[in-house]
Amino acid sequence: MHTILTERLLLRPWCEADREPFRAMNADPRVMEFFPNMLADEESDRAMDRIQAKLEERGWGLWAAEFRPDKSLLGFIGLSVPGFEAHFMPAVEIGWRLRCEAWGKGLATEGARAAMRFGFENVGLGEIVSFTTAANLRSRRVMEKLGMRHRVRDDFDHPQIAEGHPLRRHVLYRIHRGTWQAAGNAAG
User: What domains can be seen in the chain, in order of their start residue?
Assistant: First the structure.
């Protein structure tokens, strides 16, 4: 499995020591504000196991995001294949979920930029998408910093969120490899 090193982060496979901080993060109402519900310990454990299984299967995925200075788990950053039908599928999504103590420091952008590079250069993706509920302005700002573009016509109702739920409407951001390369991101 691949790991990714940035100035402040190590994106790596998950380990047993990550389980407790991951549970705490998924039970934090601030972190889970834009999700339909917080995760109980068992749900968090199953999620971590699924994430790690996908990393092992593909060699890439939602890596555990470790803060290099103190080796603490901040959450996850990486690439995934959404498990639902939508007008933009099939697709590979870039995503992140970090403890609130890590917010506002550029860590999501730093890690996502490295994961995006990996997706384009190592996986050979032609496009990467990202999506969130329309009200999640923090994540939308990260998507914009990554050079991703939003078009209103791409917005959608998330099929895994109940009709009438205030978080159902989602915005979709995209970036094509050519756009990413033209912005001077390609190695070389």
Answer: 4-182 (3.40.630.30)
> One digit per residue, pLDDT tens: the chain, 188 residues?
789 999 999 999 999 999 999 999 999 999 999 999 999 999 999 999 999 999 999 999 999 999 999 999 999 999 999 999 999 999 999 999 999 999 999 999 999 999 999 999 999 999 999 999 999 999 999 999 999 999 999 999 999 999 999 999 999 999 999 999 998 776 54
Identify the DSSP state of 121.
I
Residues 6+ apart with CB under 8 A from 53: none
pTM here is 0.94
Contact 34, 135 (CB under 8 A): yes
How many CB atoms within 10 Å of residue 180?
23
Residues composing the chain: 188
Q: Which residues contact 65 (CB under 8 A, 6 or more apart)?
A: 9, 10, 11, 73, 74, 75, 76, 77, 96, 98, 107, 111
CA distance 163 to 153: 19
